[in-house]
Write a structure and sequence with these properties.
The chain is α/β, with parallel strands linked by helices and 217 residues long. It has a domain of 151 residues: Rossmann fold. It contains six helices and nine strands; from the N terminus they run H-H-E-E-H-E-H-E-H-E-E-H-E-E-E. The two termini are 30 Å apart.
Amino acid sequence: MNVPLRGIGMTSQRTRERLIQRLRDEGVRDQRVLDAIRETPRHIFVDEALASRAYEDTALPIGYGQTISQPFIVAVMTQTLLAGGVPRNVLEIGTGSGYQTAVLSRLVPLVHSIERLAPLFQLAHKRMRQLNCRNVRLRLGDGSQGWLEHGPYDAILVTAAPPEIPEPLLQQLAVGGRMVVPVGEQGAQELQLIQRTEQGITRERLEYVSFVPLVRG
């Protein structure tokens, strides 16, 4: 993988700055998140044929029926996750291209991320090495089951939509922890903030979204 990290032309720093300004205009306020998105070279997470569109505020295909999320959604989910304080140990369900993983790695001490598709897992692994993301642990497996041995987690971020939140993920969320997850069938999904307190689980609807489904197995 020899794509330059700094980018040129449509992947240059100037193009990235236009994206950051658009995210600000759309209401993203957390400067830590904006800085992480600015510093993460999104063009290396898409096919070279799509690199010129990498800094558009849109989802893009990454093969195998999957997408790299729209930067605004990445920003909103990450901002929501950090709103309760910086979590030490984060679980991500659905590594995909690794873009959201890389953004998180700039903001939290430790990221555990699970991907069920071997080709995407292998590509993400290469990209984490390319970016020297030493605080990321990747696993090939069923994300709906979480990653029990490294939990409980201070935060869980889910990048594919289950019809209902899998019980193992709820169980692996620490008391005081936050989960950001899209829930529902395609065409009727909503982004939710789940929080675990001493009294139980609370849910807050954030906004309507469109994600690929979370597939078990």
